[in-house]
Amino acid sequence: MTKVSLSRLQAKLGYSFTELALLRQALIHRSYAATHYERLEFLGDGVLNFVIAHCLYQRFSDIKEGELSRVRAHLVKQDALESIARRLKISDYLYLGEGELRSGGLERPSILADVVEAIFGAIFLDAGFDAVQKVIVSLYQPLFDDLDPNKAGKDPKTQLQERLQAIKIAVPKYDIIDTSGAAHEQVFTVSCVIEALAVRTEGAGSTRRLAEQNAAHTAMLLLDAQPAKKSAKQLK
Amino acid sequence: MTKVSLSRLQAKLGYSFTELALLRQALIHRSYAATHYERLEFLGDGVLNFVIAHCLYQRFSDIKEGELSRVRAHLVKQDALESIARRLKISDYLYLGEGELRSGGLERPSILADVVEAIFGAIFLDAGFDAVQKVIVSLYQPLFDDLDPNKAGKDPKTQLQERLQAIKIAVPKYDIIDTSGAAHEQVFTVSCVIEALAVRTEGAGSTRRLAEQNAAHTAMLLLDAQPAKKSAKQLK
């Protein structure tokens, strides 16, 4: 089991393993060998959640427990871990079975995210809490830099509604304007209308809720594009 | 803010605070003061989940990630934390507002459980990871002693089914035998029949699922009471 040398990965992590076998195990998918990364991932998920909780606790001394939970959920979700995995070029180091390789496992977001957690678990076992905390904080720096605790983890409908409330404008109105497709593959199309701003957008999705979220997301992009202007802009 | 001296509580925790204000904050409900335990609880929940994950990882080297998660959920749920709170006599030290006091807040399981987590958060801030890990491991010792990783966190229906599969007996049959009460206060009564063992029990609950779980639970108690005997025992 040689593959690409692990020294580059360790350099990117900013951490050198005493027991390199732990790092190797964190890179082995269950399709490749019986001893794989899943137990390390369980441990790493735990330490990641806690380290991020502590960072948020320190950073935002004035926000409440419920909001801290929302922001944490945003930071530990698959998207965030996948972005870290891609920076680390995890797919260069992964061990997958034949079937997984053929079906694109090297690029599968869930595998990439799981491996990042497993690496955190491996570092904890190799050197303890302070060492893994240092690695996590450093890898998460770009995500913290981009973080707006008032938005992170909020769905587009909630964000849009809060944004309109802040400028004392009535909530948007959502209506189904089309449904198509067979029973279990339906596509809903929904409109989102903000009357006071003469804004109208549309969104599609496999559920009514998803379609509404997409319409709300587009409405926000539109508002971003005309920040100072409260006057008429009509889509479609 | 004097109340009962905090030295007895610290003795029970096996930990002495450098900054006693942290322990005090962990004991203040939001109904009592603006600076209360909820942010510490957020932090404590995180460290608890991780410390328990690590204990389980070490203790059970042969069980899989999914099972580790189930057992952890069982150990960090409200029941478990409440049992620890009662051992620590948390209600002797709590600060609650008038309304909460009158409505029985001192004995409310959710408050007791939250305060235990908040205390873990406070210890972490006071002295770091190793200190809080030591306290958690020691408080959880009785729960670990009682722990059966094959059962912990499994609902009664699942436990009963696995138990019957192990002795190659067909799964139990559940039937609704009565529903009563108005629309939103219905009570379902369900029977659980294990034909091969001539066992029949009943269970009631506000949903069909709950009623089935109760019937399964009673069936297991019955099987425990007649462990060696596979012959007829008929309830009702």
Describe the secondary structure blueprint for this structure.
The structure is a homodimer of 236-residue chains.
Chain A: H1 6-13, H2 20-26, H3 38-59, H4 65-76, H5 78-87, H6 98-102, H7 109-127, H8 129-145, H9 156-166, E1 173-180, E2 187-194, E3 199-205, H10 208-225
Antiparallel strand pairs in A: 1-2, 2-3
Protein name (chains A, B): Ribonuclease 3
Pfam families (chains A, B): dsrm, Ribonucleas_3_3
Keywords (chains A, B): Cytoplasm, Endonuclease, Hydrolase, Magnesium, Metal-binding, mRNA processing, Nuclease, RNA-binding, rRNA processing, rRNA-binding, tRNA processing
The named CATH superfamily of the largest domain in chain A: Ribonuclease III domain
Quaternary state of this entry equals: homodimer
Task: Provide mean pLDDT of chain A, rounded.
Answer: 91
Secondary structural class of chain A: mainly alpha
Distance between the termini of chain A: 58 Å
* Spatial strand arrangement across the major sheet of chain A: 1-2-3
Radius of gyration of chain A: 22 Å
Helix proportion of residues of chain A, in percent? Answer: 40-55%
Annotated CATH architecture of the largest domain in chain A? Orthogonal Bundle
- CATH topology of the largest domain in chain A: the name is Ribonuclease iii, N-terminal Endonuclease Domain, Chain A
The pair of chains with the biggest contact is: A-B, 20 and 20 residues
Count of the domains of chain A:
2
Number of strands of chain A: 3
Strand content of chain A: 5-15%
Number of helices of chain A: 10
Described by strand count, sense and barrel closure, the largest sheet of chain A is: 3 strands, antiparallel
Which stretches of chain A are low in confidence, meaning pLDDT under 50 for 5 or more residues running? Answer: 229-236
What is the H/E order of chain A? HHHHHHHHHEEEH
Please state the overall shape of chain A, judged from the principal axes of the Cα atoms: globular
Using the coordinates above, name the CATH class of the largest domain in chain A.
Answer: Mainly Alpha
Active site (chains A, B): 45, 117
Domain DRBM (chains A, B): 155-225
EC number (chains A, B): 3.1.26.3
Cofactor (chains A, B): Mg(2+)
